[in-house]
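User: I'm putting together a small comparison set for a docking exercise, and I want a reference complex before I start. The sequence is below, and the ligand is magnesium ion. Could you produce the 3D structure with the ligand included, as C-alpha coordinates?
Assistant: Of course. I'll restate your input first, then give the C-alpha coordinates for the complex.
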Amino acid sequence: MSQALYRKYRPKKLEDVLGQDTNVEILQNAAKSGHLGQAYIFYGARGTGKTTTARLIAKLLNCEKRRSDPAFASLGEPCNECRECLAVDAQNSLDVVEIDAASNRGIDEIRNLKDSIKTSPASGAYKVYIIDEAHMLTGAAFNALLKTLEEPPKHAVIIMATTEFEKLPPTITSRAQRFVFRKQTKAVIMEKLTTIAKAEKIVIDPAALELIAAAAEGSFRDAEALLEQISSVDTGPKGITLDDAERITGRTGLRKVHALAALMLAKDLKGALANLSELNDEGHNLVQFTKDLIHYLRKTLSLSVNPALEATFEKDLTHDEIAAVKKLASGADTATLVKIIKALIRAYAEMRYSPFAIVPLEVMLVEQLSA
Ligand SMILES: Nc1ncnc2c1ncn2[C@@H]1O[C@H](COP(=O)(O)OP(=O)(O)O)[C@@H](O)[C@H]1O
Ligand SMILES: [Mg+2]
Ligand SMILES: [Zn+2]
Protein backbone atom coordinates (compact mmCIF):
# COMPACT_ATOMS: atom_id res chain seq x y z
CA MET A 1 0.00 0.00 0.00
CA SER A 2 2.30 2.76 -1.21
CA GLN A 3 -0.35 5.43 -1.55
CA ALA A 4 -2.69 6.61 1.20
CA LEU A 5 -5.97 4.73 0.80
CA TYR A 6 -8.08 7.84 0.69
CA ARG A 7 -6.03 9.13 -2.23
CA LYS A 8 -5.94 5.82 -4.04
CA TYR A 9 -9.71 5.40 -3.75
CA ARG A 10 -10.72 8.95 -4.54
CA PRO A 11 -13.63 8.57 -7.01
CA LYS A 12 -12.53 8.94 -10.63
CA LYS A 13 -16.01 9.41 -11.99
CA LEU A 14 -19.10 11.28 -10.85
CA GLU A 15 -20.95 7.99 -10.68
CA ASP A 16 -18.45 6.78 -8.05
CA VAL A 17 -19.20 9.68 -5.74
CA LEU A 18 -21.37 7.86 -3.21
CA GLY A 19 -24.33 9.10 -1.22
CA GLN A 20 -24.61 12.47 -2.99
CA ASP A 21 -27.10 11.41 -5.65
CA THR A 22 -28.78 14.76 -6.31
CA ASN A 23 -25.46 16.56 -6.77
CA VAL A 24 -24.16 13.82 -9.03
CA GLU A 25 -27.28 13.83 -11.17
CA ILE A 26 -27.32 17.60 -11.67
CA LEU A 27 -23.61 17.80 -12.47
CA GLN A 28 -23.72 14.80 -14.78
CA ASN A 29 -26.61 16.29 -16.74
CA ALA A 30 -24.74 19.58 -17.03
CA ALA A 31 -21.61 17.72 -18.20
CA LYS A 32 -23.58 15.69 -20.75
CA SER A 33 -25.06 18.76 -22.35
CA GLY A 34 -21.87 20.82 -22.03
CA HIS A 35 -23.51 23.33 -19.71
CA LEU A 36 -21.36 23.31 -16.60
CA GLY A 37 -21.56 26.55 -14.63
CA GLN A 38 -18.89 29.15 -13.97
CA ALA A 39 -19.24 29.40 -10.20
CA TYR A 40 -20.00 26.68 -7.67
CA ILE A 41 -20.10 26.42 -3.90
CA PHE A 42 -19.77 22.98 -2.35
CA TYR A 43 -20.55 22.98 1.33
CA GLY A 44 -21.01 20.41 4.06
CA ALA A 45 -19.25 18.01 6.40
CA ARG A 46 -15.60 17.02 5.98
CA GLY A 47 -14.65 13.97 3.96
CA THR A 48 -17.88 13.81 1.97
CA GLY A 49 -16.62 14.55 -1.54
CA LYS A 50 -16.28 18.33 -1.99
CA THR A 51 -12.67 18.42 -3.19
CA THR A 52 -13.19 15.20 -5.12
CA THR A 53 -16.17 16.61 -7.02
CA ALA A 54 -14.40 19.91 -7.67
CA ARG A 55 -11.51 18.05 -9.29
CA LEU A 56 -13.95 15.96 -11.32
CA ILE A 57 -15.46 19.16 -12.70
CA ALA A 58 -11.97 20.35 -13.60
CA LYS A 59 -11.41 17.11 -15.50
CA LEU A 60 -14.81 17.29 -17.21
CA LEU A 61 -14.05 20.79 -18.43
CA ASN A 62 -10.60 20.05 -19.81
CA CYS A 63 -10.67 16.35 -20.72
CA GLU A 64 -9.18 16.01 -24.22
CA LYS A 65 -11.33 13.04 -25.10
CA ARG A 66 -14.47 14.95 -24.19
CA ARG A 67 -13.30 17.89 -26.29
CA SER A 68 -12.60 15.81 -29.38
CA ASP A 69 -15.31 13.15 -29.16
CA PRO A 70 -18.91 14.42 -28.81
CA ALA A 71 -20.29 10.91 -28.30
CA PHE A 72 -17.95 10.42 -25.37
CA ALA A 73 -18.72 13.91 -24.03
CA SER A 74 -22.41 13.05 -23.92
CA LEU A 75 -21.65 10.35 -21.33
CA GLY A 76 -20.90 13.05 -18.78
CA GLU A 77 -17.73 11.54 -17.31
CA PRO A 78 -14.00 12.31 -17.70
CA CYS A 79 -11.77 9.79 -19.54
CA ASN A 80 -9.09 9.67 -16.78
CA GLU A 81 -6.50 8.80 -19.41
CA CYS A 82 -5.70 11.96 -21.34
CA ARG A 83 -2.96 14.42 -20.37
CA GLU A 84 -5.42 16.87 -18.85
CA CYS A 85 -7.20 14.26 -16.71
CA LEU A 86 -3.88 12.84 -15.50
CA ALA A 87 -2.57 16.30 -14.68
CA VAL A 88 -5.58 16.97 -12.44
CA ASP A 89 -4.96 13.67 -10.63
CA ALA A 90 -1.30 14.52 -10.19
CA GLN A 91 -2.25 18.06 -9.15
CA ASN A 92 0.16 19.58 -11.62
CA SER A 93 -2.21 20.99 -14.23
CA LEU A 94 -1.30 24.57 -15.13
CA ASP A 95 -4.98 25.34 -15.67
CA VAL A 96 -6.32 23.99 -12.39
CA VAL A 97 -5.33 26.06 -9.40
CA GLU A 98 -6.11 24.89 -5.88
CA ILE A 99 -6.12 27.62 -3.27
CA ASP A 100 -6.14 26.84 0.43
CA ALA A 101 -7.84 29.85 1.97
CA ALA A 102 -6.95 28.63 5.45
CA SER A 103 -3.28 29.41 4.92
CA ASN A 104 -2.60 33.13 5.11
CA ARG A 105 -6.34 33.62 4.64
CA GLY A 106 -5.95 33.72 0.88
CA ILE A 107 -4.78 37.33 0.54
CA ASP A 108 -1.94 36.77 -1.92
CA GLU A 109 -3.71 33.91 -3.65
CA ILE A 110 -6.83 35.89 -4.47
CA ARG A 111 -4.67 38.76 -5.71
CA ASN A 112 -2.88 36.30 -7.99
CA LEU A 113 -6.20 34.84 -9.06
CA LYS A 114 -7.46 38.28 -10.11
CA ASP A 115 -4.46 38.70 -12.39
CA SER A 116 -4.00 35.20 -13.72
CA ILE A 117 -7.68 34.49 -14.37
CA LYS A 118 -7.64 36.97 -17.28
CA THR A 119 -5.00 35.11 -19.25
CA SER A 120 -6.05 32.21 -21.46
CA PRO A 121 -5.69 28.61 -20.32
CA ALA A 122 -2.29 27.03 -20.98
CA SER A 123 -3.42 23.78 -22.57
CA GLY A 124 -6.96 23.08 -21.35
CA ALA A 125 -10.18 24.76 -22.43
CA TYR A 126 -10.80 26.33 -19.01
CA LYS A 127 -8.96 27.73 -16.07
CA VAL A 128 -10.43 26.23 -12.95
CA TYR A 129 -9.88 27.71 -9.52
CA ILE A 130 -10.72 25.52 -6.54
CA ILE A 131 -10.82 27.56 -3.34
CA ASP A 132 -10.81 25.25 -0.32
CA GLU A 133 -11.93 26.39 3.15
CA ALA A 134 -13.41 29.41 1.36
CA HIS A 135 -14.97 30.73 4.58
CA MET A 136 -11.46 31.63 5.79
CA LEU A 137 -10.95 34.37 3.17
CA THR A 138 -10.54 37.90 4.49
CA GLY A 139 -13.04 40.67 3.70
CA ALA A 140 -10.57 42.12 1.20
CA ALA A 141 -10.14 38.74 -0.47
CA PHE A 142 -13.94 38.29 -0.68
CA ASN A 143 -14.25 41.71 -2.29
CA ALA A 144 -11.62 40.90 -4.87
CA LEU A 145 -13.33 37.57 -5.52
CA LEU A 146 -16.72 39.24 -5.86
CA LYS A 147 -15.44 41.47 -8.67
CA THR A 148 -14.30 38.37 -10.51
CA LEU A 149 -17.56 36.51 -9.89
CA GLU A 150 -19.56 39.45 -11.24
CA GLU A 151 -17.83 39.24 -14.58
CA PRO A 152 -15.79 36.08 -14.92
CA PRO A 153 -13.87 35.64 -18.20
CA LYS A 154 -15.56 33.03 -20.42
CA HIS A 155 -12.77 30.53 -19.87
CA ALA A 156 -12.86 30.74 -16.05
CA VAL A 157 -14.62 28.52 -13.52
CA ILE A 158 -14.48 29.08 -9.76
CA ILE A 159 -15.37 26.34 -7.28
CA MET A 160 -15.49 27.18 -3.60
CA ALA A 161 -15.55 24.46 -0.94
CA THR A 162 -16.34 25.03 2.71
CA THR A 163 -17.52 23.31 5.85
CA GLU A 164 -19.05 26.59 7.07
CA PHE A 165 -21.48 27.97 4.53
CA GLU A 166 -22.93 30.58 6.93
CA LYS A 167 -19.59 32.34 7.06
CA LEU A 168 -19.66 33.17 3.35
CA PRO A 169 -21.08 36.60 2.44
CA PRO A 170 -24.47 36.44 0.65
CA THR A 171 -23.03 38.57 -2.16
CA ILE A 172 -20.76 35.63 -2.94
CA THR A 173 -23.19 32.77 -2.36
CA SER A 174 -25.91 34.34 -4.49
CA ARG A 175 -23.61 34.34 -7.50
CA ALA A 176 -22.81 30.64 -7.43
CA GLN A 177 -24.64 27.33 -7.80
CA ARG A 178 -24.83 25.77 -4.36
CA PHE A 179 -24.49 22.09 -3.56
CA VAL A 180 -24.72 20.58 -0.12
CA PHE A 181 -22.58 17.52 0.66
CA ARG A 182 -24.19 15.37 3.31
CA LYS A 183 -22.63 13.35 6.08
CA GLN A 184 -22.77 9.72 5.07
CA THR A 185 -24.69 6.88 6.63
CA LYS A 186 -22.85 4.06 8.27
CA ALA A 187 -24.22 1.70 5.63
CA VAL A 188 -22.81 3.65 2.65
CA ILE A 189 -19.41 3.99 4.35
CA MET A 190 -19.41 0.26 5.13
CA GLU A 191 -20.06 -0.43 1.46
CA LYS A 192 -17.00 1.50 0.35
CA LEU A 193 -14.79 0.09 3.12
CA THR A 194 -15.80 -3.42 2.10
CA THR A 195 -14.80 -2.74 -1.51
CA ILE A 196 -11.44 -1.31 -0.44
CA ALA A 197 -10.70 -4.16 1.97
CA LYS A 198 -11.40 -6.64 -0.80
CA ALA A 199 -9.24 -4.84 -3.36
CA GLU A 200 -6.38 -4.41 -0.91
CA LYS A 201 -6.71 -7.98 0.37
CA ILE A 202 -7.17 -6.75 3.92
CA VAL A 203 -8.61 -9.58 5.99
CA ILE A 204 -11.05 -7.99 8.39
CA ASP A 205 -14.12 -9.06 10.33
CA PRO A 206 -17.24 -7.21 9.07
CA ALA A 207 -17.95 -6.23 12.68
CA ALA A 208 -14.58 -4.45 12.75
CA LEU A 209 -15.44 -2.63 9.51
CA GLU A 210 -18.71 -1.59 11.07
CA LEU A 211 -16.91 -0.15 14.06
CA ILE A 212 -14.66 1.88 11.77
CA ALA A 213 -17.65 3.14 9.80
CA ALA A 214 -19.32 4.25 13.03
CA ALA A 215 -16.18 5.90 14.39
CA ALA A 216 -15.83 7.91 11.15
CA GLU A 217 -19.02 9.82 11.99
CA GLY A 218 -20.14 10.39 8.42
CA SER A 219 -16.74 11.05 6.81
CA PHE A 220 -15.37 8.78 4.09
CA ARG A 221 -11.90 10.18 4.54
CA ASP A 222 -11.86 9.46 8.28
CA ALA A 223 -13.11 5.93 7.62
CA GLU A 224 -10.44 5.27 4.99
CA ALA A 225 -7.68 6.71 7.18
CA LEU A 226 -8.81 4.52 10.09
CA LEU A 227 -8.88 1.42 7.90
CA GLU A 228 -5.38 2.24 6.76
CA GLN A 229 -4.14 2.72 10.31
CA ILE A 230 -5.68 -0.53 11.48
CA SER A 231 -4.49 -2.56 8.52
CA SER A 232 -0.90 -1.44 9.06
CA VAL A 233 -0.86 -3.15 12.45
CA ASP A 234 0.15 -6.80 12.34
CA THR A 235 -2.81 -8.69 13.78
CA GLY A 236 -1.76 -12.17 12.81
CA PRO A 237 -3.18 -14.77 10.40
CA LYS A 238 -6.79 -14.34 11.53
CA GLY A 239 -6.74 -10.80 10.19
CA ILE A 240 -8.32 -7.87 11.94
CA THR A 241 -10.90 -8.79 14.55
CA LEU A 242 -13.42 -6.58 16.30
CA ASP A 243 -11.14 -6.67 19.36
CA ASP A 244 -8.22 -5.35 17.32
CA ALA A 245 -10.36 -2.58 15.88
CA GLU A 246 -11.64 -1.66 19.33
CA ARG A 247 -8.13 -1.58 20.73
CA ILE A 248 -6.73 0.54 17.91
CA THR A 249 -9.61 3.01 17.52
CA GLY A 250 -10.31 3.29 21.24
CA ARG A 251 -13.99 2.78 20.40
CA THR A 252 -16.13 -0.03 21.72
CA GLY A 253 -18.47 -1.91 19.43
CA LEU A 254 -22.19 -1.26 19.83
CA ARG A 255 -22.76 -4.90 20.72
CA LYS A 256 -21.01 -4.28 24.04
CA VAL A 257 -22.84 -1.00 24.53
CA HIS A 258 -26.09 -2.84 23.89
CA ALA A 259 -25.20 -5.62 26.33
CA LEU A 260 -24.71 -3.24 29.24
CA ALA A 261 -27.78 -1.19 28.30
CA ALA A 262 -29.90 -4.35 28.32
CA LEU A 263 -28.56 -5.45 31.72
CA MET A 264 -29.29 -2.01 33.15
CA LEU A 265 -32.85 -1.95 31.85
CA ALA A 266 -33.39 -5.46 33.20
CA LYS A 267 -32.20 -4.14 36.60
CA ASP A 268 -29.59 -6.89 36.74
CA LEU A 269 -27.08 -5.30 39.13
CA LYS A 270 -24.78 -8.31 39.45
CA GLY A 271 -24.67 -8.84 35.71
CA ALA A 272 -24.09 -5.15 35.01
CA LEU A 273 -21.21 -4.88 37.48
CA ALA A 274 -19.57 -8.00 36.08
CA ASN A 275 -19.99 -6.69 32.56
CA LEU A 276 -18.45 -3.34 33.47
CA SER A 277 -15.49 -4.91 35.21
CA GLU A 278 -14.85 -7.05 32.15
CA LEU A 279 -14.88 -3.98 29.89
CA ASN A 280 -12.42 -2.35 32.25
CA ASP A 281 -10.12 -5.38 32.27
CA GLU A 282 -10.17 -5.48 28.49
CA GLY A 283 -8.83 -1.93 28.50
CA HIS A 284 -11.77 -0.14 26.90
CA ASN A 285 -11.91 3.62 27.19
CA LEU A 286 -14.77 3.87 29.69
CA VAL A 287 -15.32 7.60 29.20
CA GLN A 288 -15.90 7.14 25.46
CA PHE A 289 -17.93 4.02 26.22
CA THR A 290 -20.22 5.95 28.58
CA LYS A 291 -20.74 8.60 25.95
CA ASP A 292 -21.72 5.90 23.44
CA LEU A 293 -24.00 4.32 26.04
CA ILE A 294 -25.77 7.63 26.68
CA HIS A 295 -26.34 8.10 22.93
CA TYR A 296 -27.61 4.55 22.66
CA LEU A 297 -30.09 4.91 25.50
CA ARG A 298 -31.19 8.25 24.14
CA LYS A 299 -32.12 6.48 20.92
CA THR A 300 -33.89 3.80 22.92
CA LEU A 301 -35.85 6.50 24.73
CA SER A 302 -36.83 8.23 21.48
CA LEU A 303 -38.05 4.95 20.00
CA SER A 304 -39.99 4.03 23.11
CA VAL A 305 -41.82 7.36 22.86
CA ASN A 306 -42.21 7.45 19.08
CA PRO A 307 -41.40 4.38 16.96
CA ALA A 308 -41.62 6.49 13.80
CA LEU A 309 -38.26 8.06 14.69
CA GLU A 310 -36.59 4.88 13.48
CA ALA A 311 -35.83 6.44 10.11
CA THR A 312 -33.73 9.20 11.66
CA PHE A 313 -31.35 6.64 13.15
CA GLU A 314 -30.46 5.02 9.86
CA LYS A 315 -27.52 7.40 9.65
CA ASP A 316 -25.60 5.92 12.57
CA LEU A 317 -27.08 2.45 12.94
CA THR A 318 -27.28 -0.62 10.75
CA HIS A 319 -30.61 -2.42 10.32
CA ASP A 320 -29.61 -5.07 12.84
CA GLU A 321 -28.68 -2.43 15.35
CA ILE A 322 -31.96 -0.60 14.86
CA ALA A 323 -33.78 -3.88 15.45
CA ALA A 324 -31.85 -4.34 18.70
CA VAL A 325 -32.67 -0.81 19.90
CA LYS A 326 -36.33 -1.38 19.02
CA LYS A 327 -36.42 -4.54 21.06
CA LEU A 328 -34.84 -2.74 23.99
CA ALA A 329 -37.29 0.15 23.62
CA SER A 330 -40.34 -2.10 23.54
CA GLY A 331 -39.42 -3.73 26.86
CA ALA A 332 -38.37 -0.55 28.68
CA ASP A 333 -40.46 1.86 30.63
CA THR A 334 -39.93 5.54 29.88
CA ALA A 335 -39.51 6.71 33.47
CA THR A 336 -36.73 4.19 34.16
CA LEU A 337 -34.97 5.13 30.94
CA VAL A 338 -35.04 8.82 31.84
CA LYS A 339 -33.69 8.10 35.32
CA ILE A 340 -30.86 5.97 34.00
CA ILE A 341 -29.88 8.46 31.30
CA LYS A 342 -29.77 11.29 33.82
CA ALA A 343 -27.64 9.25 36.21
CA LEU A 344 -25.29 8.29 33.36
CA ILE A 345 -24.83 11.91 32.36
CA ARG A 346 -23.89 12.73 35.96
CA ALA A 347 -21.48 9.82 36.10
CA TYR A 348 -19.97 10.85 32.76
CA ALA A 349 -19.23 14.36 34.07
CA GLU A 350 -17.56 12.88 37.15
CA MET A 351 -15.58 10.27 35.23
CA ARG A 352 -13.91 12.73 32.93
CA TYR A 353 -11.98 14.27 35.81
CA SER A 354 -11.59 11.20 37.95
CA PRO A 355 -8.39 9.17 38.06
CA PHE A 356 -10.67 6.11 38.53
CA ALA A 357 -13.07 6.37 35.61
CA ILE A 358 -14.80 3.14 36.57
CA VAL A 359 -15.85 4.22 40.09
CA PRO A 360 -18.53 6.79 39.25
CA LEU A 361 -20.04 4.26 36.85
CA GLU A 362 -20.09 1.48 39.44
CA VAL A 363 -21.61 3.75 42.08
CA MET A 364 -24.23 4.83 39.57
CA LEU A 365 -25.10 1.22 38.74
CA VAL A 366 -25.50 0.33 42.40
CA GLU A 367 -27.69 3.38 43.06
CA GLN A 368 -29.91 2.86 40.04
CA LEU A 369 -30.25 -0.93 39.98
CA SER A 370 -30.44 -1.96 43.63
CA ALA A 371 -33.78 -0.27 44.32
N1 LIG B 1 -19.01 10.83 -1.71
C1 LIG B 1 -17.92 10.05 -1.67
N2 LIG B 1 -17.91 8.82 -2.24
C2 LIG B 1 -16.81 8.04 -2.18
N3 LIG B 1 -15.67 8.38 -1.56
C3 LIG B 1 -15.60 9.59 -0.97
C4 LIG B 1 -16.72 10.48 -0.99
N4 LIG B 1 -16.39 11.59 -0.32
C5 LIG B 1 -15.14 11.42 0.11
N5 LIG B 1 -14.65 10.23 -0.28
C6 LIG B 1 -13.33 9.68 0.06
O1 LIG B 1 -12.73 10.56 1.02
C7 LIG B 1 -11.57 11.20 0.48
C8 LIG B 1 -11.61 12.67 0.81
O2 LIG B 1 -12.68 13.27 0.14
P1 LIG B 1 -12.71 14.84 -0.20
O3 LIG B 1 -13.46 15.00 -1.46
O4 LIG B 1 -11.32 15.39 -0.17
O5 LIG B 1 -13.53 15.39 1.05
P2 LIG B 1 -13.94 16.89 1.41
O6 LIG B 1 -15.43 16.92 1.37
O7 LIG B 1 -13.42 17.09 2.81
O8 LIG B 1 -13.28 17.80 0.42
C9 LIG B 1 -11.61 10.91 -1.00
O9 LIG B 1 -10.32 10.78 -1.51
C10 LIG B 1 -12.39 9.62 -1.11
O10 LIG B 1 -11.54 8.52 -0.94
MG1 LIG C 1 -11.66 19.08 0.81
ZN1 LIG D 1 -9.57 12.99 -20.14
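Strands lie at 39-44, 96-100, 127-132, 156-162, 177-181. The mean pLDDT is 93.
User: Thanks, that's exactly what I needed.
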